[in-house]
Amino acid sequence: MIRAPRRQFITHSLAAAAALALPAAALRAQSRPVLKAGDQKGGLRALLEAAGGLEGLGYDIQWSEFPAAAPLAEALNAAAVDSGPIGDAPLIFALAAGTRVKAIGANRSDAYGTAVLVRPDSPLKSAADLKGRSIATNRGSIGHYVTLKAITAAGLKPEDVNLRFLAPADAKLALTQGAVDAWATWEPYTALAETSGHARVLVSGRGLLPGLSYLAATDAAIAAKRPLLQDFLRRVVKAQDWSYRNVDAFSATLAKIIGIPPEAAKLQFERRQQKWVPIDARVIADQQRTADFYHRVGLIPRPLDVRPTFDTGFALDDRA
To answer: In sequence order, what are the residues at sequence separation of 6 or more whose Cβ sits closer than 8 angstroms to the Cβ of residue 8?
Structure first.
């Protein structure tokens, strides 16, 4: 029998051991849980990255970015993402369409940046002037909501305006080119349009909207990934607290990640004054009023009881 030299034997043995170790290592890497996180215009990711909120994760995050709430809601409905930030009005629209999601965290902010914008040289001065005018916005969005709240508060009816449902980029282009008279949108689009000189605020959401938005999660993700969602929510809350103690640093990171000028990033961030709050009776009552309004103006076909759409078992910090 011919024996292989000792050096050759060792080399072959090491190679064989490495070949066996590689699948095991790959298997360990694949065994880490994955949270599929949706985001709108990079806001959550920017917040967490700036605050160091992604350090020490025991799971992987698979990010998906969306320009608005409507496509994010579609992704939630299709289980393409587990969780994502969504405004109060879009959440109602999604729930009425049968999307199986719940709000697991709530925040309030100054609603000024959710607004109806017009060109700087527009002759329009108030919501009443929107009668007979064309307004671009996303169907079911908070832009759609602030439009309807603004015109009904001015004594107009939904049919008194011509709504054109466009994505934010297309809506902005339509406004600047004069194809529509107004654009109803939200932050950071409002701040970007203002600081670039492309638009001014005709009617803001301040006094019209409760300023609520949520971290929503699919029913399936809540059942299968509850610890991950709880950890993610706590990290977001901590990062939000950090951001208001480090405005300049966060604004710079936000501008870089979402691709807007620093002055626009800082403006929208500072004036929002976003704060995470418990899902309490006030939050639920405000959400119910929004649902009732949507039914009253015909945007959802049937009354919606919002209470089952909240999961109040998630804590905002480690003390709970």
So the answer is: none
Reduced to 3 states, what is the DSSP secondary structure of residue 307? helix
Element (H, E) at 244: helix 226-245
CATH 3.90.190.10 fits 34-110+211-254+273-309, yes or no: no
Domain boundaries, the chain: 34-110+211-254+273-309, 112-204
User: Rounded to a whole number, what is the distance in angstroms from the first to the last CA of the chain?
Assistant: 72
Q: What percent of the chain has pLDDT over 90?
A: 72
What is the rounded radius of gyration, in angstroms, for the C-alpha atoms of the chain? 24
Cα–Cα distance for residue pair 275/312, rounded to 1 Å: 17
Bridge partner residues of 125 (DSSP): none
Tokens representing residue 11 in the block: 């080399």
Closest by CA position to 204, among listed 157, 239, 153, 168: 153
68: how many CB neighbours lie within 10 A of its CB?
26
- Tell me: the pLDDT tens digits for 214-246? 999 999 999 999 999 999 999 999 999 999 999
**Residues counted in the chain:** 320
